[in-house]
Amino acid sequence: MNSADEAEESRPLYAQVREQLIERIRSGAWKPGQLIPNEFEIAREFGVSQGTARKAISALADEQLVHRRQGRGTFVVQHTPAHVLFRFFQLFDESRTQIIPDSRKTVPVGAVANERERAELGLDKGARVIRVARVRLRKDKPFIAESIVFPDALFPGLAELPELPNTLYDFFQKTYGVLVVRADERITAVAADTETARVLEIDEGTPLLRVDRIAFGLVDRPLEWRVSLCHLQDAHYLARLR
Amino acid sequence: MNSADEAEESRPLYAQVREQLIERIRSGAWKPGQLIPNEFEIAREFGVSQGTARKAISALADEQLVHRRQGRGTFVVQHTPAHVLFRFFQLFDESRTQIIPDSRKTVPVGAVANERERAELGLDKGARVIRVARVRLRKDKPFIAESIVFPDALFPGLAELPELPNTLYDFFQKTYGVLVVRADERITAVAADTETARVLEIDEGTPLLRVDRIAFGLVDRPLEWRVSLCHLQDAHYLARLR
DNA sequence: CAGTGGTCTAGACCACGTG
DNA sequence: ACGTGGTCTAGACCACTGC
Hints:
The structure is a homodimer. By secondary structure, chain A is an alpha+beta fold. Chain A contains eight helices and twelve strands. The interface between A and B is medium-sized, with 33 and 33 residues. Chain A binds a DNA duplex through helix 4.
């Protein structure tokens, strides 16, 4: 027996089962929205008790990779535009209602990654990326200037598309089977530069919220680097601390 | 049997046990840092199985109200300055290291709550509050202008203190038995006004991150309203989205 | 009605920290 | 060696969903 096997055996059973289940989602063996086998099936298949299978499945539910519904079954999570916005778009208006942004035509452009992009996305020298610049609208007025970059390798052929949809993460899941599961946002305040002021139709120097996001998938590797310059006015970003 | 009893009986046992345990922490029957009875003791006391007691205690651990340590026992969470900063102070420097702020002498002032304060803290007309204004330092230079308000009723005698400590939440827990368990932060970008510019030793109009926090305790009522105006420079606020 | 997830029990053994 | 939390089992019953 090698050390890897020993390490494998020393980890809790439910953790091992959990990883195997994640692998099925990652590999696409279980598709988004699909009903997965019930607790007893999974228990039988992995040779564990129903309680242990349950603990593994519940861990996936906590991580929002599956959705459990009493009486119906357990389903692989399926991103929809509404779902993606709810989870990953944390801007609210003065009455604390979540803002639903629109976006203008967004055209992807392929290029070789620059140094900053390689650092943010963890790419090797020479790797290609896809860049997208777009303006998001609120009440038909521009309020966010966004620049998005993702590794070309993860989204083959995407650079050739004439246009991208308003919400990307559900599109990524549907088209490439790539699931965004978490994101880190680094937030600062900046003054609008000339170009941004023009795009957002505001005065140069207006204070903007800069949201610098790295999105991660099932394997802990960056899927996207996104910088959003937000002209909030009476709106705000909401962070919940626990 | 009345409807309240029926509702009580229809809720899962572990949820009922969980609430009773929370009440012991809230009431101060179990003090911060104290070792609580083990799973079998709690199971026996409430007339449930060890597994059910475990589920109740684990829920408290998930909520960060207790801390479990294998081989040692389960302890009521005890806020320390380091712990409070780690959980509730999400500013990081350019190398992604958490910033540890200092603060200048902070003097509390008692007053009758104004309309805005009553709205933010959910207070009745005529209620008294305690106000604190302070400047936080980074590398001995001012970088945050903070204004804090809390209900006088929760912190009797606090307005008479000559000075408050650098971290308040551990002080609240130690002195008043009041535990901060979560906070909502509403974040915007603003331009520094004359007074703030003077305090932070920057130019008027400099973009600042405005963090507007409401902190909550064990009962779902606001404990504090805090507005922080942050001159970040090369630092950033970090929000983790899951 | 059958099938699913949700709760609950009683008991066993393991891993860890302390004396 | 002892007591703690952590894992695992086998089985029971409940609550909800859809046919």
